[in-house]
UniProtKB/TrEMBL annotation:
One of its GO terms (cellular component) is cytoplasm. Residues 64-98 form a coiled coil. This is Tetratricopeptide repeat protein. Keywords: Coiled coil, Cytoplasm, Repeat, TPR repeat. It is found in: Cytoplasm. One of its GO terms (molecular function) is DNA binding. It comes from Shimazuella alba. Belongs to the Rap family. TPR repeats lie at residues 281-314, 361-394. Its main location: cytoplasm.
Amino acid sequence: MNFANDLPLLAYLARKIRLDRGLSLENLKNENISVGTISNIENMEGNPSKSKVLYLFQSLNINEEELEEIKQKELLEIETLRRKLECVEDLINDEELEQAKKLLAQYAPKEHHALYPYFRYLQGLCYFELREWKKSQKIWEETLVLCKKQAFVAKHDLLAKCFNRLSTCWYAQNDLAKALYYVEEGLKQYKTKKQDEIKYALLVNKVLYLRKSDRRKEAVKLIKEVWPLINQIQSVRVKLILYKSYCILLLENQELNEALYYCKESIDIAHRNISQKGFLLDFLNILGSIYLKRKMYEQALEYFSLVFDISPDKKFSRRHADTYTYLTSLYTAQNDWVNAQECMKKALSFGREIKDDYRLSKILMVAGICNKTQKQYDEAIPLFKEAVTLCKENEYPKRTCNAVYELAACYDKIGNRKAFSQWTEEFYRLQRKIGWIMEEEFYVIF
């Protein structure tokens, strides 16, 4: 027995065996070992000696030879349960929630088990997939506390995974500041090569949050640091998220040829992984948007139509919202007002349904521009005002400037000088505050 290396496991076993037998600390104390010493051993505090640790196990009627056998048996049991729970995580990620919940109930460990924090993490993951953000958030915050209390760590990347998932939870609730905070906390946990995969997931999410926080330069800098490592990323999902952010940043930077190349490469990856249908739809939308930007409208329409062909139901409503928004822009560019209005209404309907403020603010802008282009200023103004409110609430400064600019333009067109002056002054204040540059168009909505 290597005492120093085995101490975390021995500390865990001492507590687990005591609790499994229904014993308290008081039940084990005697003239040779105090409650405080037992507690220190179980919590790995106070540098307990080997003799005291072995004496504690003797108090549990376990000698050193038996202890070695128990240790090996426990490690095997932990590994078996860990693999079972990892299979449950795969089921959750594949959206097979009913089977996942059934197996979670079947595999549920006791609260003092080394894998109980991982079990709780998976319960939070189930709630997250059901879009019950508050419940998943509460469970993951509790899981962080459990992880930090553990003497023996049975799931080594769990702390970083929790921080990453808390970041996605706050992102889903449109709080980018907290999303960035938790992703940074997760990156602080990165210590060994064994955690490379979760580190990539955290970095990829950080790129996403920076981009949506109007911190594009930081997002570009980070993605250039991560991109050379893309072939080391094992998770297809993480790899596709990175591809997606890279394609969008290239598109926003007018690097259309490179964006087109990586978008097509992403679609090939998604095709080879049938469970990644959502990403396939994302990249079809991006590919269509590249052709839209090139004014190749018929080609763009082919890809937007393909999204509906392979996903006719509302399962991927976020992707449908994107497609209808792009189509609104496409038909507006063609002065096809019947189709533009129809797609605009569907985009707004999906946008309000999915509870994604970043996406909805863009949809409102596209809808407003569609009405404004038709000189329907009275219809455009409420859309731009709603966009302003949403952008201010979520601190999207550049998008706020865009919406305010469009509002001022509408009031100018209808001759309302008072409102025009009000929004022009507001635009000037915002412009001074952030050093604003007008977005060229609103095609990129991811």
